[in-house]
Amino acid sequence: MLNDIFIKPFVDMFSAPDFLLQVLWEGLVSGILYALIALGFVLIFRSSRIFNFAQGIMVVFAALTLVGLHAMGVPAWICVLLTLAVMFGLAVTIERVVLRPLVGQPDIILFMATIGITLFLIGLGEIIFGGENKVMITEELGIPTDSVVLEPWGGLLILEQKDITAVIVAALLVVALLAFLNKTRMGRAIRALGDDHQAALSVGISLQQIWVLVWFIAGIIALVTGIAWGARAGVSFALEVIAYKALPVLMLGGLESITGAIVGGLMIGMLEKLFEIYWGQPLLGGNTETWFAFVLALIVLLFRPQGLFGERIIERV
Amino acid sequence: MMDGTEQTHWTKDERQAAVKDSEGYVTADGRQIGGVLMELRNITLRFGGVVAIKDISFDIREGEIRAIIGPNGAGKSSMLNIISGFYTPSEGELWYKGSKRPPMKPYEVARMGVARTFQNIALFEGMSVLDNVMTGRLTHMKAGIASQALWWGKARDEEIANREVVEKVIDFLEIQSIRKTPVGRLPYGLKKRVELARALAAEPSILLLDEPMAGMNVEEKEDMSRFILDVNDEFGTTICLIEHDMGVVMDLSDRVVVMDYGKKIGDGPPDEVRQNQDVIDAYLGVAH
Predict the structure, then answer these.
(1) Cα distance from A207 to chain B (closest Cα, Å)?
(2) Is A131 inside a domain boundary?
(3) Rounded to two decimals, what is the model's pTM?
């Protein structure tokens, strides 16, 4: 038994390093997507202290809109632009209808409001696009669907090109976002607003403008995530479940930290895959991916309640 | 126009003449003060049944250091909040640069050139000193969002130009050594200075300071007083400040508004205010 837990998995890893790489790659790809969703959470949380429960459904909604528009005969790239427009409209509507009347209310009220948004978007999505599974328009968007076959150490490593594309696009998105937040006026305003509303107002930052902007950026992130995940697993409301994976990512990475969201996402993606293949399937009958991330987050919380990268709160007494 | 250099005490008539004079007046230390920059007319502020400010009028002139003083709960901070747009007065008018100002949100007021600091420091704790001061330049940056997203063209030039102003302010307030430090780690006195820097970076027409010396030790107070005077002297910034410490106020300011229980009980140069019986009663208490 102990042998199966502590020795055999590692022996397996080293005797077939190509397979280990394959597992890590698969983990990396899902990890990137967890990270993207977590990024959407972090962005909104930092600028408004709202824990946006609706981030997951925004992913589904964006993907559904994209596929739905294409089904109406709109060319693929125009669909992307139109979907972006829809996400912008959504940001404006949420700010007007939900956030503005609730300014200054306790955090929990705003959190409840985002649950309301979630349920509303589920209903709206089903009315407009129907509830059945759809296929992501991967080829129409020009995303290559072939595989790259590598042979490290004489083994076999298969990388799907759409996964490679997803990783590259996600990486570019993150870099662009970091540059935007750290280097530009708007980015500075977003960070400022997260720190102190009053002070932000006093230097001429408009709460409303920034909130629309932030929700729109979260919408863009949702669309990218939706395309990437949809290409792997199809577009359906089941996609929302992956959004819950962002919760343990946030617990690991902390709600405040962009780096944390990324590292947390990658860690969870890879660790859960490793655990599934080397421990889960042989010892526990598989399907550990559904719960592994949450258990891991729980263990981290026991030792570092602020997350691995979260800001430690030191209270002066 | 009177010769202010020898004028240490103004009579009531002289003061009124000076205030009426749209050309301004000359201060005790010989500085020329300009015309009316902001005028508050019959301002009343109510919170439900509580009257925080009752029918107060005064003006702020270009280039002067105007102080609002009064005991705790006199309504000083409320007054500052009205000027900076955080509160909307229940009654009364606010005139700015010769035209009546409609009710505005704080960020709109900020964009019109009114910068402020807060009594309980409101800084962006997670950001560096430099970034904090940079936010003060937000009202001066106009580049479109696309340009910003790409960090190209106008946004880039703007960032560099604004950076120069910010460096000048940082230099002026002697906080070069902590430029990169996150604000959350700074001691209280320095935070106050960073807040002043942020407000100053906006190159405001009016700089509002809410108790800039509160909670400071003597040395820090002296530093802050020096900075306030230097700012006024160097940039000609109009300053309106609230202060508790009578001694500090009397040394710093050109004209003083005294408030008590939401009412104005005195207005004029420090020396005159000091001798006002109502003011003495308000500060020392009076037998009822």
Answers:
(1) 9
(2) yes
(3) 0.79
